[in-house]
Amino acid sequence: MEEKIIKGMPTLLEAELLLKEAGRLNPGTWVEHSLYAGKAAELIAQNCGNMDSDTALIMGMLHDIGRRVGVTGMRHCLDGYNFLMEKGFYTAAKVCLTHSFDCKDIKSAFGKWDCTEEEYKFIKQYLEKAEYDDYDRLIQLCDALAFIDGYYLIEKRMVEASLRHGINEYTTLKWKATFEIKEYFENKMGRSVYSILPGVIDNTFRFK
Q: Is residue 195 included in any domain, yes or no?
């Protein structure tokens, strides 16, 4: 079967190879998280009449591809963007920068800023000018739904992230934006996102 060619995007096979290579360069559970995020994006897109599920899958798989360079904080967003831009995958590169910023404020991100002042300024200006589309919003949602071993209620993922990274005055604004995105896609689908993601109850409440 011939792979679909999408402008500014790797094919699915290319995306799989990029993620596999990245996992060799920097092994870690971030790879499993990326695969789950991609699958969630694919499933949700399949239930939205105006979205391409292959595009969603690939973007979800590659949103954290910047982690290929090693263990970093928020600079993984910029590393991923630069990596995919250098390969000409400009459509996929965008979500590397937007996936952590539901409310478009650079100060709202979880994690340590380990960029230079110039890099930080670039990301800030990029976010201020960016127009989010449904794929940006979808990957933000799936990033919040997907963990390293499956899907969880967003509330549990939020607490888990806060315990790892701490909170600040922007945390509740970020949470509010995430729930608004969830509601947006549920309205598009006419059903709960949890109804199409396998294992949410078992993973959240640790049922066997």
A: yes
pLDDT at residue 165 is higher than 90: no
User: Range of 112's domain?
Assistant: 12-205
Q: The domain spanning residue 24 has which CATH number?
A: 1.10.3210
Q: What is the pLDDT of residue 1?
A: 47
User: Cα 10 vs. chain centroid, distance in angstroms?
Assistant: 17
Token pair 């919040």 is at which residue? 144
Contact 204, 156 (CB under 8 A): yes
What is the structure's pLDDT at 54?
96
Q: What is the reported pLDDT for 31?
A: 98
Which residue's structure tokens are 């973007």?
Answer: 59
- Total structural domains within the chain: 1
What's the average model confidence in pLDDT over 116-144? 96
Residue 1 within any structural domain of the chain: no
Let me know if residue 6 belongs to a domain: no
CA gap 49, 188 in Å, rounded: 8
How far is 132 from 23, CA to CA, in rounded Å? 28
